[in-house]
Design a protein that fits this description.
Blueprint: E1 2-10, H1 14-25, E2 31-33, E3 47-48, E4 58-59, H2 60-73, E5 77-79, E6 83-87, E7 93-97, E8 102-110, E9 114-116, H3 122-126, E10 132-133, H4 136-139, E11 147-151, H5 155-165, E12 170-174, H6 184-192, E13 196-199, E14 202-208, E15 217-222, E16 228-232, E17 235-238, E18 242-244, E19 273-275, H7 287-309
Helix pairs in contact: 1-2, 1-7, 5-6
This protein binds NADP nicotinamide-adenine-dinucleotide phosphate.
């Protein structure tokens, strides 16, 4: 089966759904492919307090459900299907799905986002939203006056650690080597901060809950000596990087070394193909900035279609 759409949006986080709301209100009848994590990264956070418009905190999944409903109400079709291939070399673009559907799209918005990398231990997964987080800006506020650990030695880890010192009593940065990967300026700032201590050459053996179902500590292994030590913390922020979801566009769109799309704002180098949100944004990574980029991408797509039609 094959169909032709004015606009296809890949991804259903704040970027994708905002693009859909704008495109739908311009009568483009957008088609959104939800992807493997419907609603995106917000669905793995708890309360959201920094998305404007909500006087009281809203749960991440609830916010995304509302955004999805809003997109559908104004005329978006949301489809649950895996995209197996996107061909940007022909116009309209060709999108193939795992249910053997082929969709042709006059314009495309890539809002596939990025996924936080996890250490990969069982306790980390079990205690997600129960003291384990991958986003200090989202969840730091809930650890006011508490002791927390940040895992990682890159810029993200330093940024998260610095941010957490505003509200937490202490921040322990756990890094697997004895030198930081972070840029000098970020590393210096963190090293000078009296609230931050460093556990060097250390790996996380286990995140402890003391049978409470909530984080109570962290068990570290010194990777040089093998020594095991337990540390009392109530929050663990994993900051070992993000993986942009760009595999579909390998050899089709320019990417940096980490796989993030290289764009000119929301424009990719391919006419009619736009990007929004964490798939290219390594700077802000917020729901509200992603939503803003989704809006911008949709407006660009609308203008693009109008310009083509007037030729
Ligand atoms: P990153 O630079 O790749 O650093 C990831 C860190 O996590 C490294 O220290 C790495 O250790 C550690 N790590 C990776 N896998 C691990 C594992 N399985 N277990 C334990 N530790 C692990 O990622 P990032 O910090 O997210 O930064 C990504 C990009 O965004 C960078 O280019 C960065 O400069 C940029 N960024 C910039 C800013 C800013 O300028 N404000 C803020 C955030 C990010 P090793 O060092 O041993 O490899």
């Amino acid at each position: 089966m094959s169909e032709l759409r004015e606009i296809v949006i890949i991804g259903s986080g704040p970027a994708g759904l905002t693009a859909a709301i704008y495109a739908a209100r311009a009568e483009l009848k957008p088609l959104v492919f939800e992807g493997p994590q419907p609603g995106g990264q917000l669905t793995i956070t708890t309360e959201v307090e920094n998305y404007p418009g909500f006087a009281n905190p809203i749960e991440g999944p609830e916010l995304m459900d509302a955004m999805r409903e809003q997109a559908i109400r104004v005329g978006t079709e949301v489809r649950i299907d895996w995209i197996t291939k996107v061909d940007l070399s022909q116009r309209p673009f060709v999108i193939e799905t795992s249910s053997n559907q082929t969709v042709h799209a006059k314009t495309l918005v890539i809002a596939t986002g990025a996924s936080a990398k996890w250490i990969g231990i069982e306790s980390e997964q079990r205690l997600q939203n129960k003291g384990v987080s991958a986003c200090a800006t989202c969840d730091g506020f809930f650890f006011r006056g508490k002791d927390v650990a940040v895992i990682g030695g890159g810029d993200t880890a330093m940024e998260e650690a610095m941010y957490l010192t505003r509200m937490c009593t202490s921040v322990t940065v756990v890094h697997r080597r004895d030198t930081l990967r972070a840029s000098k300026i970020m590393a210096d700032r963190a090293l000078k901060n009296p609230k931050i201590t460093f556990a060097w050459d250390s790996g996380v053996d286990e995140i402890l809950d003391g049978g409470t179902g909530k984080v109570t500590g962290i068990r570290l292994k010194n990777l040089k000596s093998g020594a095991i030590s337990d540390h009392y913390v109530q929050g663990v922020f994993v900051a070992i990087g993000h993986q942009p979801n760009t595999a579909l566009f390998t050899n089709q769109l320019p990417m940096d070394n980490a796989g993030y799309l290289i764009t000119d704002g929301v424009k990719t180098p391919i006419a009619g193909c736009f990007a929004a949100g964490d798939v290219y944004d390594t700077m802000y990574r917020q729901a509200v900035t992603a939503a803003g980029m989704g809006c911008m991408a949709a407006i660009e797509a609308i203008r693009f279609i109008e310009a083509e039609e007037s030729h």
